[in-house]
Specification:
The protein is α+β, with helices and mostly antiparallel strands and 207 residues long. The protein contains 3 helices and 10 strands. The protein has one domain: Inorganic pyrophosphatase (Inorganic Pyrophosphatase).
């Protein structure tokens, strides 16, 4: 009988206990918080490591792609420096959208994604970038290398969703989608978020 392969005796924390991915910044792991079918916005409880109900989706616009974050990333000074209209990072893991031809209707899953670009989002003067990626080896979208290769309508839906998903009727919006950028800049954002994480959580690097 062969010995057991290495395994985690307890469930890993989605942010700190899962590796960044097989080949960052090009290929990364994604922890999925929200699917395109969700009418509720879920967000990781950063202490407990479980999904928490954040709020109902306010508008009729649903997420046009899977949405989550890249483990062991953190948006602080380095990420903020890459966003001209931001004063700092938002001190959260780096957000990421994943485009998939086959519907994935479960959250709290991990997948491999190929980074192709991103949206430069600023919320209350904080960098809140949304990286755009493709499910690795996707049958339809797998050949896409850069966000410029996507249909314009798909990028427009992503921009519209993030421009409106925090809107409160009667209140001015504090969030703006400043730009869409390609994969080379997205790689820089991911690398910056990795370095910000290593500085903020050096104790996790030995785990």
């Amino acid at each position: 009988m062969s010995p057991l392969s290495p395994f985690s005796r307890w469930q890993a924390h989605p942010w700190h206990g899962i590796s960044i991915g097989p080949n960052p910044p090009q290929i990364v792991h994604v922890y999925v918080e929200i699917t395109p079918f969700d009418l509720i916005k879920y967000e990781l409880d950063k202490t407990a490591g479980f999904l928490r109900v954040d709020r109902p989706q306010r508008t009729s616009s649903l997420p046009p792609a899977l949405y989550g974050f890249i483990p062991r990333t953190y948006c602080a000074d380095r990420v903020g420096d890459l966003s001209p209209k931001a004063k700092r990072g938002d001190k959260d893991p780096l957000d990421i959208c994943v485009i998939s031809e086959r519907p994935i209707n479960h959250s709290e899953v991990i997948l491999n994604a190929k980074i192709i670009g991103g949206l430069q989002v600023v919320d209350q003067e904080e960098a809140d970038d949304k990286i755009i990626s493709i499910l690795l080896n996707d049958s339809i979208w797998g050949g896409v290398e850069d966000v410029s290769d996507l249909p314009e309508i798909l990028v427009e839906r992503l921009r519209h969703y993030f421009a409106t998903y925090k809107m409160i009727p009667g209140s001015p919006s504090t969030l703006t989608v400043e730009a869409t950028y390609g994969r080379e800049h997205a790689f820089k954002v991911v690398e910056a978020a990795i370095q910000d994480y290593r500085e903020a959580y050096p104790e996790s690097l030995s785990e």
